[in-house]
């Protein structure tokens, strides 16, 4: 499995590409180094576009015939819901399976469903806070690592999450 990470708020920030880290230990260390950069807005569409065009590319570790999975984690409504829907659709058209995870009370379930692949009940989740993310971690691991998406056991995953993800995701 290859993992990339993009954080976002007013703009997306590449943390690392799919081909940057080879071991779980290296990935965890890289995530631990991420610092939160607050913002005024939540530009989810821009983050999805960045993930699609900058992360899932051959030069950055994406491979042909390997399932592409994008996990979008947000703690607020997108500044531009229409752009978010357009970019999510473009990602799905490019063959990226999208999970949408909303954290907290400021998230719009309908917007998560616009982002998520179908059926949305299998790709769209709401959790109370970032600590609860670990409760759905096993479900995501099962879906991404056992061939339940795209029939492949070899996947590339790019996580697109809000700026403070380092302090909130463990595993």
General description of the model:
By secondary structure, the chain is α/β, with parallel strands linked by helices. It has a single domain, classed as von Willebrand factor, type A domain (Rossmann fold), CATH 3.40.50. It has six helices and six strands, in the order ββααβαβααβαβ. It has a six-stranded mixed sheet, sandwiched between helices. α2 runs parallel beside α3. The longest helix has 13 residues. The chain is globular and about 35 Å long. The two termini are 15 Å apart.
Which helices and strands, and how do they pair?
Blueprint: E1 2-8, E2 12-16, H1 24-32, H2 44-55, E3 67-74, H3 81-93, E4 96-103, H4 109-115, H5 120-123, E5 124-127, H6 133-145, E6 155-162
Parallel strand pairs: 1-6, 3-4, 3-6, 4-5
Antiparallel strand pairs: 1-2
Helix pairs in contact: 2-3
């Amino acid at each position: 499995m290859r993992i990339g990470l993009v954080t976002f708020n007013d703009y997306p920030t590449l943390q690392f590409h799919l081909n940057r880290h080879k071991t779980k230990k290296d990935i965890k260390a890289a995530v631990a180094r991420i610092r939160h950069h607050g913002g005024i807005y939540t530009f989810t569409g821009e983050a999805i576009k960045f993930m699609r065009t900058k992360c899932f590319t051959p030069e950055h570790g994406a491979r042909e015939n390997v399932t592409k999975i994008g996990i979008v984690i947000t703690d607020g409504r997108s500044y531009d819901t229409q752009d978010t829907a357009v970019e999510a659709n473009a990602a799905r058209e490019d063959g990226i399976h999208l999970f949408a995870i909303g954290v907290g009370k400021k998230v719009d379930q309908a917007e998560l469903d616009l982002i998520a692949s179908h059926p949305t009940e299998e790709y769209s989740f709401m959790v109370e806070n970032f600590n609860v993310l670990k409760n759905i971690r096993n479900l995501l691991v099962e879906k991404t690592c056992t061939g339940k998406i795209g029939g492949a056991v070899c996947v590339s995953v790019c996580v697109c999450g809000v700026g403070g993800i380092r302090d909130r995701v463990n595993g």
